[in-house]
Amino acid sequence: MMNQNQQTQSSSGDSGECPVCHGTGWELYNATVLDYGLPEEVTYARRCPKCKGQFRGEDRTGTPKEYHDADLTKFDFGVYSHDMGKMQDLCHNFLDHFQKWEMAGKGLYLWSRTPGSGKTFLACCLAKSVMMKYNLSMRFITAPDYIDAVGNSYKRERGEEDPSQIYRECGILVLDDIGAQADKDWHRQEIFRLVNKRMEDGNITIYTSNMSTDALNVDNRTRDRIIKASIELRMPEESIRKKQAAREQKTFLASVMG
Question: Per-residue pLDDT for 257 more than 70?
Fold first, then answer.
């Protein structure tokens, strides 16, 4: 009789692909939630219970390593001292009714002046959940790294793939820390090219920033398009990263001090 590991390997076949998640590392499941007081069945993604992600291929989204397993169920809206009920409802609406947002050409602009407020994690949770539920191509990149990718594209040999092209064409993009790029003319032009191309193609972008759109160091054409193509949400001015570090230190000290 085969043990569980042997059964998993046998079921996956020679391709090494899990029969449940098909190599994605995620399983889709349905759950009933209340939408305006009425029950509605929605689809979520969770880590594959069969292979635990062991058959998942390399994460090519560019998401930071600590957020590889991010999805909206992982984000704790209750950790803030502010009431996050409306933002939580809006984020779940973005996931559950993404096709309506897509038809309207609307993404999100998450910002706060406080580092560690959770905006990047929330953006990754939303984008990864949308990617899994709607089978979209998804990428994550910081604005400075995107500028570097564009610069590298000019150095490529003839016939080589443009490393920056995927960010202009993917189904959903997290453009992290926009405003942190250097304030140079060609940087402004390339950010405009990215924002304009994605808006024209109807591809959705989730921006994160340490500044509002009014203070963003982009030209007026870019700012107008970002405002048109995204709903601006201000995150609480709280460092969730510091709170998490304090909890971890307290737990550690309790364990070593008995």
Answer: yes
